[in-house]
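batch job 7 of whatever, protein = Small CPxCG-related zinc finger protein
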Amino acid sequence: MWRSRTNRDRKRVVCIACGDAVLRSAAREYDKEGNRWERHGKRFEHLCKSCYRGLCHQPRGELEGLLIDIEEHGITNEEFLLRYFDAVKERYESPGERGR
């Protein structure tokens, strides 16, 4: 007979939002690709339940693609945010708003 998996969730994971170490059973999986059901070849990050509840659970559409487009190893946070602002402005502002 197979043994039960009672110790599977006893390991601790670190919440990527607040940095707290919590039991795996007290955490939620986070998949940056937005598809936690496709599990093959993935390593999930985790959020504590409190941080998970604080997330916006609306669809994020093109966000991951936009972030990948502007990402570059070694750039500063300030440069990343400037690139993000410019990319959002370019992609989503109407032509009439761009001149302002």
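notes: DSSP finds four helices and four strands in the chain.
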